[in-house]
Amino acid sequence: KSDLTVDALKLHNELQVGPLEISAGARKDTQMEEESDERLSERTSGTFLSGLSDCSNLTFRKVQRFWESNSAAHKEICAVLAAVTEVIRSQGGKETETEYFAALMTTLEVVESEESQAAVAYLLNLVMKRVPAPVLKSKFSDTTKAFMDVMSKQASSDTSSALRWILSCLATLLRKQDVSVWSYPSTLQAYHGLLSFTVHSKPKVRKAAQQGVCSILRGSDFLFTDDALSHHPATVTTAKFCIKEIEQAG
Questions:
Q1: Whether 132 contacts 121, CB under 8 Å
Q2: Handedness of CA 120, 126, 131, 137 (dihedral sign)
Q3: Of 80, 66, 81, 67, which is closest to residue 32 (Cα–Cα)?
Q4: Which domain of life is it from (predicted)?
Q5: In a 10 Å sphere around its CB, with 0-12 CB exposed, 13-18 middle and 19+ buried, how is residue 85 labelled?
Q6: What is the pLDDT of residues 76-114, one digit of tens each?
Q7: Is the pLDDT confidence value at 70 over 80?
Q8: How far apart are CA 64 and CA 151, in angstroms?
């Protein structure tokens, strides 16, 4: 007996193919490109960053290619990854997804610049998809609070990079929780926070929130168990939110 069915695999593939996919010929279409007024840094040639080029965790393999980019956002991602890797190594870590998750969450709470916050959020979005579910369940409360804090601060920001990656992280976190967690008011509050950004003024933020909502309603882990519910517990509140928005816009 296995949950690995053709339909489940198809859904998994659909959920994974999102804004993180970067092709060489479509760089200007990638979600990691900043707004048109983004300042591009000068290309730095022949530079070696320990902790980046020799990072052993395959989750960040695509990040290593960013070093050849002259995008300031890509450079910042490389710098953050290198720094976090060095911290993990200095403490005798094995560079696992869980270690990166813990280190990046700590970093998210202390970085101040929007550029660094966006870089941390992007790396978190990459690694959280591979962090063991029990870890995300045990750290649900603290992680949700950290994400909600960033969301509230970034809601009216001129840039949207950090916000859209945090929304994706929150969706991943909610998708991994047990069905019982959805009876808690705090869970619904976090989910409503995600829902509210589906009508945000910035298109990239709206898209990240909309993709997150769809992935939760269609791809939460407990929907693929033998005794799965016919629909997600948040379906009703989602429908009410949509009806309210339609009525207000009408």
A1: no
A2: positive
A3: 66
A4: Eukaryota
A5: buried
A6: 888 898 889 989 989 999 999 999 999 999 999 999 888
A7: no
A8: 28
User: Residue written as tokens 């869980």?
Assistant: 98
- State residue 160's pLDDT score: 78
Using alpha carbons, select from 65, 222, 79, 58 the residue that is nearest to residue 137. Answer: 222
- In this predicted structure, what is the pLDDT of residue 28? 41
The model carries a pTM of: 0.78
Contact assessment for residue 124 and residue 144, using Cβ atoms and an 8 Å cutoff:
no
Gap between the Cα atoms of 85 and 112, Å rounded: 20
CB 119 within 8 Å of CB 108: no
Give residue 37's identity as a one-letter amino acid code: D
- Whether the predicted pLDDT of 37 surpasses 80: no
Contact 169, 154 (CB under 8 A): no
- Classified as helix, coil or strand, 34 is coil
Both structure tokens of 205: 């933020």
Spell out a b/e string for 107-123, using b for 16 or more CB atoms within 10 Å of the CB, else e. Answer: bbeebeebbbbbbbbbb
